[in-house]
Amino acid sequence: MRLSRLPGTMLWVGCLAVLASAAPAAERKPPAPTLGDLKPRNIEVRPDRTVDASAQRAIENYRGYLKDKNADPEQQAEALRRLGDLNLEVGEGERMDREASAVDAQAGEAIQLYMRLLKDYPEAPTNERVLYQLARAYETTGQTDKALETLDTLTRRYEKIANPDEVAFRRGEILFSAQRYPEAEKAYRASLESPVTRGGFRSQSLYKRGWSLFKQGLNEESLPPFADVLEATLLDPASSGRVRPIESLGRADRELADDTLRVMSIAFSYMEGARSLDPFIATRGTPAYSHLLYSRLGDLYVEKQRYQDAADTYRAFVARDPVNENAPLLAVQAIEAYRKGGFSELVLQGKREYVERYNFAADFWQGRDRSAYSQVVGELKTNLKDVATYLHATAQGSKKPADFRIASRWYRDYLESFPDDPEAAGTNYLLAETLFDSQQFAEAAAEYQKTAYDYPRNPRSGAAAYASIVAYQKERERLAGDAQAQWHLQQIDAGI
User: Fold this and answer.
1) 3-state SS assignment for residue 14
2) What whole-number distance in Å separates Cα of residue 373 and Cα of residue 378?
């Protein structure tokens, strides 16, 4: 973390991001993550610096000028300030190649120059800026207590400073690093409430205010500022109803959004999970990024091997807004959570629900083009086939005609949804098989004929042609009189 200079000098932006990562527990429902799981990660954006010989020459020139006892006092005061700024800037440039905690002579000289200026010229009009630079120099040399004291002096002495949001934010950073979280929260809140609120400091102040509350165990209170961060980073400025993909954001915003989603997930897990998330989303007017909160919370539960909780969280969003364009993806995530947990029956149930919600006759497709949702179409195709195959295998085990009839319904749905599928002929043959085994011989004969002659020549053509003859015979045996004669003729035609 570095204190930045006032406008006219180079800005340093530092932020502390905290990520939570814990190893999966061995039991089915391990304990929820704790504050001890959190590990700090410093994100420091360092702007390019170029310190050349001209800066050193300027330093020597200012030093020589200050030795002139006949120099104008106002010009001497300005020379002191500029010399202090140059020392601080050159020291930062050199510090790039050294340990960040090193106390360099140039920053120490800058401190002495600023102190001399404040003492010799207490009424100088630039002293507001000097105090800020002095605080920055103290922080640079690791003297954070003096940096905080200097910032406090600055805010007391000058009612209307040029950068109140930045000063309050820097106070918050020092207090947060010292683990003085209640004071840090107040400082970040002051930055947000200042008459001057610039974008960079607003987002960071929101983020760190949320963390200050979270660190105090105020999970519910930390959520609104974190949600404000998501709105600032994820919502499209041109359309608040559209979410910008996280991967499309710049690196700083992308890390900020990812970290914010992560800590919000932990906060909800400390509360009541999806049961806490639902009312929170409602109070925010169901923002466009809502699906990300459910998805990340579910992902956290998966990491903890709490698969049932994960699936419940994903499904909570689907139940809340089933026609949302992101709902099918969360439905798939729920199925995958069941699969990882070994809940085979729930996997099947999830697949059946997916088909019922997102088949082509469902409300989801009203006003939507299938070509724009290839992933949803692909999952529908997979789940239809999986359910039909599973039910067919179940019927083969039970030998019950009723079970075969259920399986045939799913094969029909698949073929109606994907008539041009390359495997349609094989699927149609399986449909005929289920109809035959459910003793619907007339329908079975028709589907066998379709497999044999309506589709291009395929591996099932011969078997289907012969099976149709058998199906005609079975149907003929159940009839009498003219009906039996008619089916006998159809059997002969099939044989020919």
Assistant:
1) strand
2) 9
Q: What is the C-alpha to C-alpha distance for residues 381 and 379, in angstroms, rounded to an integer?
A: 5
Instruction: Identify residue 134 by its one-letter amino acid code.
Output: L
- Specify the 3-state DSSP secondary structure of 400: coil
Query: Model confidence over 101-151: pLDDT tens digits?
Result: 444 667 777 788 888 888 888 888 888 888 888 888 888 888 889 999 999
**Which residues neighbour 484 within 8 Å (Cβ) at sequence distance 6 or greater?**
476
How far are the Cα atoms of 176, 253, 375 from residue 209, in angstroms, in the given order?
9, 17, 38
The vertex-460 CA angle with 459 and 463, nearest 5°, equals 125
Which secondary structure element, helix H or strand E, spans residue 486, and what is its range?
helix 481-495
Rounded to the nearest 10°, the torsion over CA 255, 258, 263, 265 is 180
Residues forming beta bridges with residue 18, ordered by sequence position: 40
What secondary structure does DSSP assign to 309-370, as a single string?
HHHHHHHHHHHH-TTSTTHHHHHHHHHHHHHHHT-HHHHHHHHHHHHHHHSTTSGGGTT--G
Give CA–CA dist 14/1, Å, rounded: 5
Instruction: Tell me: pLDDT of 248 over 50.
Output: yes
Selection from 196, 191, 220 nearest residue 208 by Cα? 191
Tokens of 180: 């003085």
Decide: helix, strand or coil at residue 195.
coil
Residue written as token pair 């085979």? 344
198 Cα distance to chain centroid: 25
For 328, the token pair is 């099918």
Q: Is residue 258 classed exposed, middle or buried when 0-12, 13-18 and 19+ CB atoms within 10 A define those classes?
A: middle
